[in-house]
Write a structure and sequence with these properties.
Blueprint lengths: L2 H4 L1 H19 L5 H9 L3 E7 L7 H10 L5 H11 L2 H14 L1 H10 L8 E7 L1 E6 H9 L12
Parallel strand pairs: 1-2
Antiparallel strand pairs: 2-3
Length: about 150
């Protein structure tokens, strides 16, 4: 009998503890400036549940935190749009859409200065796809969303 077979239960339980620990850590609360910083440096746009386990990623927790900060929604949105990575800019456009849909659409159409070859990864569930920044920005401007939006605080 091999060592792995003999210790299968121990190995399996250890892996489960690690997976559950990562899931709990990923959904831990993130607040204020930490949320903004996380989205400014986002590598991809992520929905509320990603991967096979449906874990809420830290970037979505940060997005949800900023979504419900009504008093600083517009300033956070413009900060992300002006200083974020391409994925951070998409998060900013989504926040701006919540603040003022008309203003967001005008801003998107007037400020599409990203090169058309700049691609952004979007993950929702187990699905990851790549789209160019302009296409995603126009999707947001057309009242469509690239990820599911927070519904309650």
């Amino acid at each position: 009998m091999s060592i792995i077979r003999k210790n299968f239960r121990l190995i399996f339980m250890s892996l489960m503890i690690v997976v559950l620990g990562l899931a709990v850590e990923a959904s831990a609360p993130i607040k204020g400036q930490e949320s903004l910083w996380l989205l400014l440096h986002a590598r991809r746009v992520e929905g509320s549940a990603v991967g096979y386990a449906g874990v809420t990623p830290p970037s979505y927790v940060a997005f949800r935190d900023l979504w419900f900060q009504e008093d600083s929604l517009a300033s956070n949105a413009y900060h992300l749009i002006n200083h974020g990575t391409p994925a951070g800019k998409i998060y900013g456009l989504l926040l701006l859409r919540k603040y003022d849909a008309y203003e967001a659409a005008l801003y998107i159409l007037d400020n599409l200065d990203q090169p058309s070859d700049k691609f952004v990864a979007v993950q929702s569930g187990c699905r990851i796809w790549f789209d160019n920044f302009r296409s995603l920005a126009l999707t947001v401007a057309a009242h469509n969303y690239v990820i599911d939006l927070p519904s309650s605080n």
